[in-house]
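User: I'm preparing a small set of examples for a lab meeting where we compare how different chains pack in three dimensions. I only have the primary sequence for this one, and I'd like the structure in token form so I can line it up with the others. Please keep the answer compact; I'll paste it straight into my notes.
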Amino acid sequence: MKSSTITPPRLLHVCRLDDASAGAAGSLALACLAEYGSAENPAFMADLHVLAADLPRPVREAAARARLDERKHAVVFRGNHIAGDLEPTPAHWKTADTPSSRRYAILLALYAGLFGDPIGWAAQQAGHLITDVLPVAGMEESTVSSSSGRELAWHTEDAFSPHRAHHVGLLALRNPDQVDTTIGYVDLPRLSAAALETLFQPRFEILPDDSHEGADQAGGEPTPLLTGHPEAPVLRVDRDFARPVAGDRGAAAAWAELTANIDNSLYGLAIGPGDICFLDNRNVVHGRRSFLPRYDGTDRWLKRVNVITDLRSSRPARPSGLSRIIH
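Assistant: Understood. Below is the structure token output for the 327-residue chain.
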């Protein structure tokens, strides 16, 4: 999967924090850590929006402006402080809730509170609200974020579900090789009228990705890959886990055109230590370039959170064996 030689538009909002703002945000996270102990504490989540209002004004202003931009790709907050006492990058996400990293899980949650409500999946990383992205030995060629040698294919986060996140937040603790997060979008003028019409029709299947342990891989009801207004559609797609309905030649042609279109729009964004990036999961896909892991404690390590802008409207109508919204 190679990005186009044509320079694509990068609809990014970038907020560069000065030392005072970064220090204030870090102090707020430490105070919350002392009071609540963890981002997973239900009392912390209940108070999240009130607490997030104490983030520095430049952060709140940048988040407010970005939320009003319905066509944005992402908003990036640069300059948050990462202390020198951070533990080595863990060998697995199961051991990634380390004492020094908890402040950053809380910091990411506080920023997320400016965009909506964090959610988690019962079938993914034991239902944690703040999850970890790091390379795991033996999973180098897998299709999930624990991979490294294989490029993580572009996707809408949890595209299989109507209850997927509106924003995906990433906080980089380490990224020594400046490995790019990839971002892609649909270049509408380059789609044929026939493909565009087909993509708005329920002629495709999207399976849960392999990070959802025990999920049904049989596929659900056929779904469109684009919804909403034709000039600014909501995107729902996964390079590895979406497919046209079997035997539908028109859907297969539209799928081939869409994947080529997104492949050509793909660009890289290196998220460095202290950067917090919120990707708009309705407008863009994201993935990650391949890299060579060290497994010596210095590897790339990100904290991740999924955010819903309106928790009530996103609750399943009835309990599902596949997912659980946690708040």
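A couple of notes for your slides: Residues 195 and 253 are 7 Å apart (CA to CA). The longest strand covers residues 167-174.

User: Perfect, thanks.
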